[in-house]
Design a protein that fits this description.
The protein is built from three helices and eleven strands, in the order ααβββαββββββββ. It has 197 residues and is α+β, with helices and mostly antiparallel strands. The chain has two domains: 31 residues; 150 residues, Rieske Iron-sulfur Protein, CATH 2.102.10. A three-stranded antiparallel beta sheet has the order 1-9-8, with no helix packed on it. Strands 2-3-4 form a three-stranded antiparallel beta sheet, with no helix packed on it. The radius of gyration is 28 Å and the shape is elongated.
Length: 197
């Protein structure tokens, strides 16, 4: 017995209405989901950064930005490299035993190539940015000073390998980010042969 209702039309209208609602929901959800994804600028901020060192003079420091942090590349002179050995007794972690660097930077120079060191320029105490003090035996920093970084916020001192001195607030050496030489004149910061940091 029929009640005068065409069930096939009802089914067709129900399917059509459901499909239209699904399309509408998708159009509404796409901008919402897209707004939660990081912007191109934010994605680029975490991407590896190339640093051209072709014009660096011995003793010079250049600064780049990676992940919103200052990254320093210092081209150390032969005298500065010798000074790193002279101050070992004054350092908290001279052999870089705490994990503040990749394996390939666990050496006296904390670098891939002795001449160049790559450091994140943020003090390991409370996050200030230390000043570059390359001069030797600065009167205000002590007789043991052979050049390095001084944090004006609380007085922490680091040598030209980013190793922290004894008796200062900073508990660890400066961080060395993952990096590699992609040519003789370009360093890639944020990635190495093991992958992206």
């Amino acid at each position: 017995m029929s009640d005068g209702v065409d069930h096939s039309k009802r089914r067709t209208l129900t399917i059509a209405a459901g499909a239209a609602g699904g399309v509408g929901a998708a159009f509404t959800a796409v901008p919402f989901v897209a707004s939660m994804l990081p912007s191109a600028k934010a994605q680029a901020a975490g991407a590896p950064v190339e640093i051209d060192i072709s014009r660096m003079e011995p003793g010079q420091r250049i600064t780049a930005e990676w992940r919103g942090k200052p990254v320093w590349v210092i081209r150390r002179t032969k005298e500065q490299l010798k000074g790193l050995d002279d101050i070992v007794p004054y350092l908290r972690d001279p052999n870089s035993e705490l994990p503040m660097q990749p394996d390939y930077a666990e050496n006296a120079y904390r670098s891939i190539r002795e001449e160049f060191v790559v450091l994140v320029g943020i003090c390991t105490h409370l996050g200030c940015s230390p000043t570059f003090r390359p001069e030797v035996i600065a009167a205000d920093l002590g007789e043991e000073w052979r050049g390095g970084f001084f944090c004006p916020c609380h007085g922490s001192k680091f040598d030209l390998a980013g190793r922290v001195f004894n008796g200062v607030p900073a508990p660890k050496n400066l961080e060395i980010p993952r990096h590699k030489f992609i040519s003789d004149t370009v360093i890639l910061v944020g990635a190495d042969d093991q992958g992206v940091a």
